[in-house]
Amino acid sequence: MRTEAKTEKAANGKDYYKHEDGVDELQEKGGLFDVLGVQLGVWSAGPCECTSSLVPNCAMSTLLPCVSLAQVAVRTGMTTYVWALLFFFSLWVMAIGSAVALHVAKLTSEDPDMEMVAPRVTIFVLMIIRFIFVVGASRVRTQVRTSFHIPGNALADLCFMNYCQCCAIAQMATHAQSYQPGHCGFGAPDTLPGCC
């Protein structure tokens, strides 16, 4: 529930709303924006608009989702860059490592049972890693939604993150403005004021 807002004029002449809960908004372009120009109440990009910025948004969310998620988590004040990057990167490395280990074990094994047991164990491990990754990424998505007053729920976040991970990550990165179009940056962006 929103608190009562005081209307003031911003330096650029736009209506400026200062809420008691610390959220500042600008009224422009038919929507609400915070003082840094991040849209409130709706996603600034659609669920499949990751191709609007191929570099870095689409590339990073597809090839290095751990970096993109860490940048979004920092941008919304959820955690530090190092902790988010370590969490998502370690899951990413474990998933790739499990798949490589399975392949090497199958190639080097002379045991016929290896062909039956190893894939099942590896698939089970990969499913657990994937589940942890999706739940962690969904928590970041829920944080983005609540920080910018976007309607939705945690179950929808979980489903979208599970079924189209790269699109969900790209949508969050676009909305939180955690990247500079045309520039692949691996560092931590500044945390948005009011998101902490």
UniProtKB/TrEMBL annotation:
Keyword set includes Transmembrane: yes
Pfam families with a match to the protein in the record: PLAC8
Domain of life: Eukaryota
Keyword vocabulary terms for this entry: Membrane, Transmembrane, Transmembrane helix
Transmembrane segments annotated in the record for this chain: 81-105, 117-137
NCBIfam families: A_thal_Cys_rich (TIGR01571)
PANTHER family tied to this protein: DUF614 FAMILY PROTEIN-RELATED
Name of the protein this chain belongs to: Uncharacterized protein
Organism phylogeny: Eukaryota, Sar, Stramenopiles, Oomycota, Peronosporomycetes
